[in-house]
Automatic annotation (TrEMBL):
Residues 131-211 form the DUF4209 domain. Pfam families: DUF4209 (PF13910). InterPro entries: DUF4209, ERMARD. This is DUF4209 domain-containing protein. It comes from the Eukaryota. Signal peptide: none annotated.
Length: 677
């Protein structure tokens, strides 16, 4: 891994030339008064005239445009340096309000005065993410469904209507187009080191943002529209992100000054860190110490990508990709490819093998960055979806701790003392046994357990006192309910051999098997979530829908029971409503074991189908058809048990038909489970 010492740049020669040299070739100087009017407005004509176009199709000629705009950027940079903070605030602060984050742009101005390269790069990353979010808000003045990618957003007709196409072309020279400077992607993907980003480009984007604010104000006055800012994404259930150092330990005990000091030493010695990127690592740890948690994570995420890219390109013998940020490769050397099972040439990706414990990196990264139900930290930060001022320490804790484990994992053998240190070892132990929390398999397990907890509330629900119940025709016998319970018992007896034996009892299969304890044990079954086969993912979609419907039925039963009991005691129910209420109480006696049975069934399906798909490919479409019929039953159950319908007799009939179908195909189900064992 000596490559980490020898690499001097991650920009290919053509990209390095475009970013670091092209904009400095023209030595012209521009009077700032030609670019900025006396009343402080941006003279867009003086800027847009530097954008050049190809004769062939009149598209932007990015090379000529960057060369021509270089001196303009320098003039603006010098202008900003000549201003005091007070002068800048008076002249420009008003024009940043449209971004909904004026403070950030004032902060970037401060950074420009000191020209610390790491801080400039950080400021540019934050500026571009905030600008993208604000442009998305403007897009929604006219359009719907804001484009996810910045390049698509800048190419939209909606923004051209508001700002003008010539202005949008200026922006595309700096961000959004892979053919231009592409500053946002080069930084967020970790290709550029701190010293490779010219300060004047940061100053130019600050200037352009103010100019966009002026154009937007004119548009809003003309159209009488009101700009509405989308709410920020808020991380919920932060406890689910609590990975390090473990369930019974507090992370603050381990990410203390001593741990961070060790981390700083590891950064200098670990082969995971490119030496040209070392300032980013040190700045990230400093930001954490200063409680600037968003800054810390923004700095770390691209560096984790760089380190993994170094491993990826080395183990897969494609070193050229470490040094590439060109158009045809930019989107292909990021986390998506590095975490994939196979390369784009269909060869097996060797990175997981090098990591030795895929859960240590691959599953953690998939959870925190990629899975749709996970926090998707990098996406949300880079697209401006998160309020940086309130970024939670809990998230930063996990990213910093994970980074430390990678630094240790890819350190020399003589670093053994660091790895065994009392504050480092618990982090390493947690990383080695990490299980995915946001893969659909993990989410289904969580859904099933939550639904079972809901059903367990039923026995505690208030019911009508016995002395209030009068004999009502149709409620005297429970023969139909007994038949349903008998069918469930028969099916359970066939499935019992595939269940944990310590959770089963032949004496009372309903109450001994259909328990929360059994579900917990089944859900504790270790299932590999990395690279789940397509059939598993398709089946998971149906299983999760079934679980969702069961939970909705349970919540409806709870709500209806509580409401009707209150109405009964207050004597506000009409005769027909009283009759229906008693039918409901009669029906939920059998509905509880039915729902518990379905939860056990789909959890067994999860475990066994996953094993079958891994071992023996099979025609899963017919099997999927069966699951969809169960889903149809639960959907109908939701309808019948809703407050609007209250069809409790129909619920029993529906359940009877569904259980008959399940029992008929139970032999086929057993065959499937035998394949898994």
């Amino acid at each position: 891994m000596a490559l980490s010492d020898s690499v001097t740049t991650c920009l290919s020669p053509p990209v390095h030339y475009v970013i670091c040299k092209l904009g400095f070739e023209k030595k012209d100087t521009y009077d700032i008064n030609n670019i900025l009017s006396e009343n402080g407005e941006v003279c867009w004509q003086a800027v847009t005239e530097h954008v050049c176009y190809l004769e062939s199709d009149q598209s932007v000629d990015y090379i000529k445009s960057i060369r021509s705009l270089g001196p303009v950027c320098e003039s603006i940079n010098l202008h900003f340096k000549s201003l005091t903070k007070e002068q800048f605030v008076i002249q420009y602060a008003l024009w940043f309000r449209w971004t909904n984050y004026t403070e950030l742009f004032l902060e970037v101005f401060d950074v420009l005065q000191y020209t610390q390269t790491t801080e400039v790069a950080l400021g540019l990353m934050k500026l571009t993410s905030c600008l993208e979010r604000a442009l998305g808000d403007v897009y929604l003045l006219i359009g719907k469904d804001c484009p996810f990618l910045l390049r698509d957003l800048l190419a939209s007709e909606q923004l051209a209507v508001v700002f003008g196409q010539a202005v949008m072309n200026v922006l595309k020279v700096f961000i959004g187009s892979p053919y231009g400077l592409n500053l946002r992607n080069v930084l967020w993907h970790g290709f550029a080191s701190p010293q490779e980003i010219p300060v004047k480009y940061c100053a130019m984007l600050l200037f352009l943002t103010a100019g966009l604010g002026q154009l937007l104000q004119t548009y809003l006055l003309q159209t009488k529209c009101i700009l509405v800012h989308r709410p920020y994404v808020i991380f919920v259930s932060l406890e689910e992100l609590d990975v390090f150092p473990g369930k019974y330990l507090t992370i603050s005990k381990y990410l203390n000054h001593e741990t961070l000091s060790i981390a700083e030493e590891l950064v200098k010695l670990s082969s995971f860190v490119l030496k040209t990127m070392l300032p980013f690592w040190m700045a990230a740890l400093t930001a954490f110490k200063q409680s600037r948690y968003a800054d810390c994570v923004i700095l770390l995420l691209p560096q984790l990508e760089v380190g993994l890219r170094l491993l990826f390109t080395t183990t897969n013998q494609c070193p050229n990709r470490l040094l590439t940020a060109e158009v045809k490769f930019m989107s292909k050397v990021s986390y998506d490819l590095m975490l994939a099972k196979c390369l784009d040439n269909e060869e097996v990706n060797q990175l997981p093998a090098v990591l030795e414990e895929p859960a240590m990196a691959s599953e953690f990264l998939w959870d925190f960055l990629n899975h749709q139900e996970g926090p998707r930290i990098r996406d949300r930060l880079s697209h401006g979806e998160i309020n940086l001022e309130t970024f939670p320490r809990e998230v930063a804790n996990q990213i910093v701790a994970f980074a430390i484990t990678l630094l240790c994992r890819f350190s020399d053998e003589d670093m053994f003392a660091f790895k065994e240190h009392m504050v480092i070892k618990p982090l390493m132990n947690c990383a080695s046994c990490y299980r995915s929390r946001f893969h659909p398999i993990s989410r289904l397990k969580k859904q099933v357990l939550e639904c079972m907890k809901s059903i367990h509330i039923w026995p505690e629900l208030p019911t009508v006192p016995k002395e209030h119940i009068q004999t009502i025709k149709g409620l005297e016998g429970n023969a139909e309910a007994s038949t349903l319970i008998l069918m469930i018992s028969e099916i359970i007896s066939q499935l019992q051999q595939y269940m944990p034996q310590n959770c089963c009892s032949s004496d009372d299969p309903i109450n001994s098997v259909l328990t929360e304890r059994l579900l917990i044990e089944l859900c504790d079954t270790c299932i590999c979530t990395l690279y789940s086969p397509r059939p598993v993912l398709e089946i998971l979609v149906v299983l999760r829908k079934i679980s969702t419907q069961c939970h909705q039925v349970s919540e409806q039963v709870i709500a209806s029971t509580e409401l009707r009991y209150k109405q009964w005691m207050n004597k506000t129910l009409r005769s027909r409503q009283r009759h229906n209420y008693l039918r409901m109480l009669n029906s939920i006696k059998f509905l509880s074991p039915v729902l518990r049975f379905i939860l056990v069934l789909i959890t067994l399906e999860l475990v066994n189908v996953h094993l079958v798909c891994r071992k023996n490919p099979f025609d899963y479409q017919q099997y999927l058809k069966f699951l969809k019929s169960v889903l149809q039953y639960t959907e109908n159950l939701v309808t019948y048990t809703s407050p609007e319908k209250n069809k409790w007799d129909e619920t029993m009939e529906l359940t009877n038909k569904a259980l008959i179908k399940i029992r008929k195909i139970s032999d086929r189900k057993l065959m499937l489970m035998q394949l898994a064992t």
